[in-house]
Amino acid sequence: SEIESSLPDLSSGAIKRVRKGFKIYNKALAKYAKQFAPEKVKKTGVKIFYCPMVKGEWFQKASKPRNPYLGKKMPMCGTAVDY
Description:
alpha+beta, 83 residues, 3-stranded antiparallel β-sheet, 3 strands
């Protein structure tokens, strides 16, 4: 599965590999949330954000993006997506 394939990168300790694994993991999780539980996720106040620069998604409660992929380079890159 996508989630299983992300685990070695997530646990590697190298920031580039961790971000790669995080991207794969969040893609699978976002797909699941959009398809099977959109109302439950919305009720929690969690939003799915998307960064076009890295083509990656992530979850967060804050309304302004806090991009986990680009670090200090572009911390505000990303927009909330509908699901």
